[in-house]
Amino acid sequence: MSTRKTIGTKNESSLHRSLKFQYAGSGGKTEAEVGGFVADGIRKDGEYIEVQTGSFGPLRKKVKEFAAIGKVRIIHPIAVTKKIEVYNIEEKLLYRRKSPLHGTPWDIFNALLHAPQLPLIRGVTIEIAMVDITEKRVKDGKGAWRRKGISIKDKELSAFHESILLSKPKDYLRFIPFKKEEKFTVSSHAEKTGIKRWMSQRALYVLMKMNVIKRVGKEGNAWVYARG
């Protein structure tokens, strides 16, 4: 009996598949069993590749296993723009539109929220892939109520803009635009970076768990932070 701890490629999107082959590279391989888990890819140089479009929480055990025997690169695609195409059940295109939402590198903290110490594992690199995607939907009455029964069937890679490498904790200082001796709060961080307060709260929580920043006091009811 197989010991695979994965859903395999059954529910794999075209986006996931494209990035898996792209990052495995020439001479690499995909869907390789390693210690009871399945790696999305293994590069020619032996680096393990994991493409993760959602939360990193499910990767904790797998990545720890891979990191014990080699280097690991987690690819996290973030959609700069998303085009939505809606089809009927006969696969005829009904309409297409652009999503008003635009992803930014800050979205990495949504993925890290339930695995904030994953980047601290020796040999683990997180690579943010800033991309454009096309999301294909079908008007089949089986989707979520907020989409009025329209199901998401696939996500495709439309364009690749850039990658952002986060290999060491200090690489995450790009998200802290303050000097070492400066103190800041969620409010001042959100104001200086131009992000929403809730995103600042999420980012600072993750960065504190990573020891990139630390709490150094309070101003009223607000925690005060400084670089670690």
List the helices and strands and how they pair.
Elements: H1 14-24, E1 29-34, E2 37-42, E3 48-51, H2 60-67, E4 72-87, E5 93-98, H3 108-112, E6 124-139, E7 150-166, H4 186-193, H5 197-209, E8 213-219, E9 222-227
Parallel strand pairs: 3-4, 4-6
Antiparallel strand pairs: 1-2, 2-3, 4-5, 6-7, 8-9
Helix pairs in contact: 4-5
Please characterize this protein's 3D structure.
By secondary structure, the protein is an alpha+beta fold. It folds into 2 domains: 14-167, no CATH class; 177-228, Arc Repressor Mutant, subunit A (Orthogonal Bundle). The chain is built from 5 helices and 9 strands. It has helices spanning 14-24, 60-67, 108-112, 186-193, 197-209, and strands spanning 29-34, 37-42, 48-51, 72-87, 93-98, 124-139, 150-166, 213-219, 222-227. Strands 1, 2, 3, 4, 5, 6 and 7 form a 7-stranded mixed sheet that branches. Helix 4 (186-193) crosses helix 5 (197-209). The longest helix has 13 residues, at 197-209. The radius of gyration is 20 Å and the shape is globular. 29% of the residues are buried.
What is the CA-atom radius of gyration, in angstroms?
A: 20 Å
Number of strands: 9
**Element pattern in H and E:** HEEEHEEHEEHHEE
Taken together, the total number of domains comes to: 2
Q: Helix segment count?
A: 5
Shape type: globular
Spatial separation of the terminal alpha carbons? 48 Å
Strand content: 35-45%
Query: Helix/strand-derived class?
Result: alpha+beta
The main pleated sheet reads as: 7 strands, mixed
Proportion of helical residues: 10-25%
Arithmetic mean of pLDDT? 93
Multimeric status of the protein: single chain
Catalogue the unreliable spans.
1-7
